[in-house]
Structure formats: C-alpha cells, structure tokens
Amino acid sequence: MQSGQQQARRKNAQVLDGSDIRELVESKEAFAKFVENKFRHLDADGDGRLSLTELQPAVADIGAAIGLPARGSSAQADHIYSEVLNEFTHGKQDSVSKPEFQHVLSDILLGMAAGLKRDPIMILRMDGEDLNEFVESTAYEAEAVAIFSQIESGNASLRQCLPAALRQLTVDHGMPPASDSLVMEKVIEPALQELPADQLDRPASQEVFFQEFKKYLGVIARRLQERPIIVAHTENTFDGAGIRKILSNKFEFEKLLDSVWVDVPKEHKDRTSKKYLRVALDKLAASVNLPPYGAVDQVDAVVNEAFKMANADDGKAVNEAEFKKLLTEILGAVMLQLDGNAIAVSTNTVLHEPMSTSSTLLSPSPLSPTVSSPSE
C-alpha cells in the first residue's frame, strides 16, 4: 500500500491523458497551423504534395508516439507501419495533398487521444526518494521477510538472492523495473559491485539477507538520486462496469451494434460468419472498457470462455439479429465474470530516451502549435 507521501508524488506526476491532443485537434485554427508547419517541414521538394518517401518521417513519428519499436525491428511492427502509411494513401495513391494529410492525421491523433483517455500514462521519476522511504518504513521488515520466503532456495548466495529480491519490488516501493536493461546496467549491477564480494558469496540466511538487502537498497537509492530513471506507468481495472453501463442504455447499445454490423463482411443474403464476432468485439472494446484481444491474457481467458459458452466459434453463418444476439450474450457473460473477479493490470516501461526526443509527432507542442519545428 502506498504511503501518503507516495500518493502525493503520484498526484504530482505528469499524466498523459490525451487532453492536450484533443484540444489541439478540436481547435480548427490551431490544428490548421500545426498541419501547415508539419506539412511544410515534410514537403522536401515543395510541390504541395507528400510523396511516399516524404511521408516516411511522419509514419515513423506516429509509430514512436504509440510506442512501436523502430521500423525493421519486427514483422508485427512493420505491418503496423505499413497500415499507417496506407491510411494516408488508401493503399493506392503515390502522394497525398495537404487536406488529405490533415484529415488522416486528425483521425490518428483523436484515436491516440481516446486511447490515452481510456488508459492514461503516468510519468514517474524514480529518484530514490520513495525507495529510501520504504527502507526506513515500518513495512520494510515484514516485506523483506516475505520476499526472502519467496526467493530462498537452499544454499543460494546473497549474489543470487539480492537481484531476485529486487524483482519483487515495484514502482510503489520506488523501484524501477529490475528487468530493464538500462536499470540493470546503470543501477543494479553497479550497486551490487559496491557490496563486499566475500559477503555476497556467503549463503543467504534470513538475518543476513535482511541486513544486506537494506544496504543494497540504500546503494540503489543513492544511484537513483544521481541518475533518476523515468518510468511510464499505466494501470487499469477491468470489472465489467463499462459493459454494464452500455447494456443499461438500450438506445446507445443498439447504435453501437448497428455501427459494428455495418462494418462486418457479409456473405450472401445479409449473413455473416460467426468468426467475425471477435472482430466485432474488438471494435466494441474501447466503448465497454475492455482491452483489445491479445493485450491482456487474463481478459482473453474470460472472453474465450464467453465465446465457448455462446458456441460462437463454430464459424457458422448467421443473420443480423442472430449476430447481435450472440454479441450481446458474449458481452453479458464477460460482464458477469469480471463483476465477480475483476482483473487489475499495470505496466511499467522505462523510457530510455527523453520524452521530447522519442517522437516529434506533436512538435510543435499542442500548447504552442504555431511555433515552427526546429530545422534539421
């Protein structure tokens, strides 16, 4: 549980909730100036259109802004980059005009804003303060004992136990993700080297572990003070409330079902395969506070069970009424399961680069959209 000081620091953390992006896009004058600056910067030959080559920096920026690895890092990421490019060109054009660029960029930014509103990102500065507070708190002893009981293994040495113990700590303790390469290289390994080698090679009894782990955390806290680590933190609880809310509003729910049905591929006589139920559920996900399928294993398991109960995976063709009925049954089953067993999910990602340099998609920033991007 977080202390009052930790909660206060969380409140003071930078929160990315998409509001700045929405404000920019919804201001016609500001967004037009933003697009003008961005378009002029990309239009290298000044012909008033962006070629596929000239679009590449914008596509790369969008990828960086949504957290994709660099192009060429993975086939999955490359596929998404290609899809972003196709959004601009519709898969056919070899260049796009400024109005086309503005329209697509608006859609992409609003989509990003909606995602951030649903799952805000909290930017935490791990500077050793919270970690020191944990070490000096009354909670340390009990947690250290509990951690030791989880990692203790026969005659394991302190050198083995201490790094393993770190992996049991979270950002709530003031510890950045111990598995991250930057944290390992700049914090964990150098801190371990500061401890006496002969002590590290001794078997780790509970008493020895308790004392040395405290020293180790003190060294790590000092290193974090010298070089703070920035962590992007997200947390969400899937408890079925979003589904319950939309199901209770018959008018809005029917509109949502209609919009999904329109986009579903049809077979002859307005029938479609049940296999598109998963596609439809993904389209509904944001509206009912569910993650996209494949994003959270625990939620996927609940969804899979709901599909099984509704016999929705047999691939048979159904008409519109049957399709909507099945989708409603699936949502209801997911809601009931989550209502009784809510799923809490949090992620912590170390930012290896300063936020301002990871993507120039919103440079100039939403707060000053008329300022031109610095020249390369």
UniProtKB/TrEMBL annotation:
Biased composition (Low complexity): 356-376
Cited PROSITE patterns: EF_HAND_1, EF_HAND_2
InterPro entries: EF-hand-dom_pair, EF_Hand_1_Ca_BS, EF_hand_dom
Pfam families in the record: EF-hand_7
Keywords annotated in UniProt: Calcium
GO molecular function: calcium ion binding
Annotated segments matching region Disordered: 355-376
Domain spans labelled EF-hand: 30-65
Origin: domain of life: Eukaryota
The protein, known as: EF-hand domain-containing protein
Originating species: Triticum aestivum (Wheat)
Source taxonomy: Eukaryota, Viridiplantae, Streptophyta, Embryophyta, Tracheophyta
